[in-house]
Design goal:
homotetramer; alpha/beta; two-stranded antiparallel ribbon; globular; L-rhamnose isomerase/sugar isomerase (chains A, B, C, D); Xyl_isomerase-like_TIM-brl (chains A, B, C, D); EC 5.3.1.14 (chains A, B, C, D)
């Protein structure tokens, strides 16, 4: 098994983008509970993200959601971020909250509404120029609730056309990543339900169109790490949206529901070169903190990814290949499990300290009194949320 | 196979309670779309429900959700309903939208909040006295999102105690029905996740505590009609919440996603005496109309139940038992399928007309111009919704 | 809505291939029950398939499974089939029952075993030349049971190489169809788990490599008709394996578990041109009759497909498009449901009679005494089965 | 957090019963692969089980499956076991492999076949008297494949009657445990599909009838530890059948697919008193080793249970309750995760050595040459299997 010292170079490179919306209130269709200290503005969300990075060294960029994070001056927002020690990252388009999008956006049968949705993406590209972001991430809420409601095929063709129009506007250094989702908010069909559809759509666009894999967007029982392997093999894995789930798209803290699955995913990332220096894969969180505090929720999340990455990096690949070659099923499985069961928390804590970070970022945050101060300072205004 | 004339007595008895909240706006955590003509008040919701009954003869009662349907004078609300041709029915308690309930209601570890939730149910009982309602329906959003968050066992015990306190207050003619739900809004565990738990809880209370079966609240692949059979066999099936789903608790129009499942459920209801005159089983809808018009959505729903009930009543039980007894699998299945495949729409239309109802209630509603008038009249105010 | 007379040309063209193995005994890992009259030889299986075609006019070809249907003289077997009124169809390879394939076949890490599996496919191609079959269908049992057991990526690359070697040997008029399956008999991962993987593999081969969609090989909740639409759109839908399921790959009679899903699938087939005269899509059954009689089980199956095809052909596409264009969700759904609920059995019976077929093939078979005669004649020998 | 020394008393008491059938060949409906050295007789299976106990100290008893383990002299078989250091444990009835049981056993509509199945259980009780076993475990393969095939209700009533007849014959020190299973080998319905049905049936029998929970017998997404908690709370958890699964009833090595789930289950066992000295809960494995060697497969399994038990015992309950009481979701979850992430392997190894056991039983077995000797010795005869 590799020693911990063998893996720190890779760990030091690890970067996990935080979603600005994780710091706002979220919930279910039944209730969105609020939390004292929740940010009211994009600037406050970025400040919270910067706090996570300050304590962990793991989260150097923040993703924006447009129009949730609309501001007048994106260059100023970028400077605000840099002053706090982070950069602005992926721009996420949102074409699901305008009444016009009730029956679709990029797939809508009405050309006027499709153009409105395309224009919304053009605005995202403009923002990317201002912020220096390279990735435009598209998750569509498009779909139908009832069989017959619309033509599945016509929607797919319209989607292809809309995406092509957006893709043409990309600058050479920019990428489009297309997320897929099994269901919700549409219940009969979603227009990009699986990796196969996302791949078919982005392959038709060009080399800078890639697939975004959200770990919670699959049917029960799906082997997610297989998809990770396949997309890496095909050169089309653009980014991860990390979170975890027990049932549906629960958007729980990554690693909370099935830590072993997270380990297996990261094992395939390592095996497929996804952590190499020249890797095209970006890692980000896409989570909700419905009942827990948000900043420590995000700290916990990036630590979970870091801990599982460390374990995945500790897999003894030589021993693994030897056991695999001899079809010793139990031995091969044991090599993998040895890494998974290794408690890396102590070594990670020491390594963090050696880099000027708190050994235990969760405790450091709890003891800092920061959460209490935020609750005291952030009174009045409207707490950020999804505005559903 | 029975003739249509043989089943009309039973069909004439059929009553499907409508949920007041189906007429308000609903949606997902991503967006609640609005519809012109949506009611602003409990009175307008009841008027819409009465319209459904007027056109179908199937929906003589309306269920209320407290506090969504809070009014000053429930007796007056009941008179309003009766003037429109319907009665007030089941009272549904809601202990999931107050900030105090963030970590539970009847299961909360804080006795003060448990009492608050119990008091909310006492208020429901008071309303039942004013409205003449007999059923108190309890669906709990209680649960946890993360392993370890709370003690599963302690919550179960607290639930038992809270329910017992509520049950004691029931008048002799009143019933408590406890709904179960697989997941959502809690994602790690819900405190009443399955029929076994609901049965265990209501059995501990007494004879007037029964189980409510919502057809969308099960794990993938669950044989729902088996549960219907079992609860009828055990004498504990209190009521149905009808809806349909493809994936999770989609709350789509009943019969829309899997009409054959609805048929099988109603076949078990018939076989188990659930449609008999002295049956204790009540039928109601619990649906969302996120994108379709609400009044015709409810008309479609009660018609779907009626059509499938008619088919279920057409099963040739003598032929079925004969084929079953001889283990002729294909013949037995064919007897069931013969009833399922019988197109009852023509005979139902004629029968409706014979009773002074429109032959095609969907068309009658569409041609009446009622929806347009509502959209014109109901301007201003705040459209009803879940207020999540 | 189209009249029945409008759709009979298409119905007359319908051909559903029968699997020879459906006539042998099958079961579960717990028990394979036998049935009197079960065939002992490939010739007897073909005779049973011919009986299904004789009574339904729907099943002009029979698929073989090699080595289950190994004979000395395939040309003679083909003549035997033609004498009985049917033709030999798809050749299915079987590389999962030799001890050598314990850890894989086309994906095995040992080149010798991969070559053995490739050779098995070469033999299938030889048989195709003798029988005149055009389709080689590959379903792989390959996969692993435990994380770490083998490299997912290396197996995928070996699969690509093996398939390429087989594909090179295809004659110009022959096709390779690659089936995918979610799980079973491998439990951790299967090497072709989803349509995306099958598509990626066949796309790398060439135009005559296509995807086979088995309706039971998906995760719970998967929208199968969406995949049908997508594969038709991408020009890569080669064939269907029809069956139905409640939970896993139950291999029940097609249309038995969810007739509405079968309707929706056939609606997408119609919409995507899959029933057009020049369609490249082939239709076959892949089922087990564990407890019911096999010949009537197959008759029931092809009738189910025919009945649902008729309903799908009755969809009023003009009305559907009109409702879709105006976003009238309920009206669009109703157009689809109108076709689904139309009882086509009477008109189909009359049309069958007009073509010299029994009006009710199930009854005709039951009354023919054929099953009893088979049970009397086929004594001794070893009943055909999977030999697991 | 408790120290390791605090938990060794409980660990020393841990006993996990091994299933004799785990040492025979098993597989899927597609293929049963063989392994050199597989036992040919019940005596050899017991010898293999004794080897597992010898190396781990965890498996003092062996469960038998009747008729798979039928012998002439059960008292002699018991002596054979004791000489090897183990005892005979639970007797598992098998009423699913006789042709008579094609349509059911204890639920069959034919009283003659029901009596045959009841008699089979009486024989199991006779064997229990000879072996000194206290538990009769009933898992039924009964169910139907097609809607309408039989009356769900009548089968349930017949099951109740059959079970009552068997229960009456129990000696005062004997127990009946009834296992439930979601699906397979029946696909439309199983007669004991869920814990609610099992509980309803055993509750009608008496105090010595309990529920058996097989960890693989649930729908996707089911919170199994909740059921553990509930059955413990209701005093009806009789025994566990441990295994793991990714999709269906995969019967993989316990802890292999979702180690965190196993931890959560054992946490509820600890919390509910299931490991207390007077606990009524018995623990056993029910697994298949389709492709891996069986003896080390069983060693790995009991070690997995031991390791997760140790982690569950290390949960700091005081800290957990404190965090729960203050609704600090992240802190409460962290207390649980701290125990889960603690690498107990080193301390367990040292503790094993202190008790005269090998530090690493897997390595000890591999290095012993035992497997090779078995392969050399056990030639000829028929390897044990399910005989499906």
């Amino acid at each position: 098994m590799p020693r911990f010292a063998d893996i720190t170079d890779t760990l030091a490179r690890q970067a996990i983008e935080l979603p600005s919306w994780a710091f706002g209130n979220s919930g279910t269709r039944f209730k969105v509970f609020s939390t004292p200290g929740t940010p009211r503005t994009p600037e406050e969300k970025i400040a919270d993200a910067a706090k996570v990075h300050e304590l962990t060294g793991l989260a150097p960029t923040v993703a924006l959601h447009i129009p949730w994070d609309t501001v007048d001056d994106y260059a100023a927002l970028g400077r605000h971020a840099r002053e706090l020690g982070v950069e602005l990252g992926t721009i996420n388009s949102n074409t699901f909250q305008d009444e016009d999008y009730k029956f679709g956006s990029l797939t809508h049968s009405d050309a006027r509404i499709r153009q409105k949705a395309i224009d919304a993406h053009f605005r995202c590209l403009d923002i990317m120029h201002a912020t220096g972001s390279t990735d435009l991430k598209i998750w569509l809420a498009d779909g139908t609730n009832y069989p017959g409601q619309d033509s599945l095929r016509a929607r797919q063709d319209r989607l292809a056309e809309s995406l092509a129009t957006i893709y043409e506007r990309l600058a050479p250094h920019q990428r489009l990543v297309l997320e897929y989702k099994f269901f919700e908010p549409a219940f009969y069909h979603t227009d990009v339900p699986d990796w196969g559809t996302s791949l078919a759509q982005v392959s038709a666009l060009g080399d800078r169109a890639l697939v975004c894999l959200d770990t919670g967007h699959h049917a029960p029982g799906t082997n997610v790490e297989f998809i990770v392997m396949q997309l890496l093999r095909l050169g089309r894995l653009g980014s991860f949206d990390f979170n975890s789930r027990f049932y549906a798209d629960d958007d729980l803290i990554v690693g909370a529901a099935d830590p072993f699955q997270l380990f297996r995913i990261l094992h395939e990332v390592v095996a497929g070169g996804g952590l190499a220096e020249d890797s095209a894969v970006r890692f980000m969180l896409d989570q909700c903190h419905n009942i827990e505090d948000k900043i420590p929720g995000q700290i916990r999340s990036v630590l979970n990814v870091q801990e599982m990455t460390a374990r995945a990096l500790l897999v003894d690949h030589a021993a693994l290949e030897k056991a695999q070659a001899s079809h010793d099923v139990l031995a091969a499985n044991e090599v993998l499990m040895d890494a998974f069961q290794t408690d890396v928390r102590g070594e990670l804590a020491a390594w963090r300290e050696s880099r000027g970070l708190p050994a235990d970022p969760m405790r450091a945050y709890a003891e800092s009194g920061h959460q209490r101060r935020l609750a005291e300072q952030r009174v009045g205004g409207t707490q950020a949320g999804w505005g559903a």
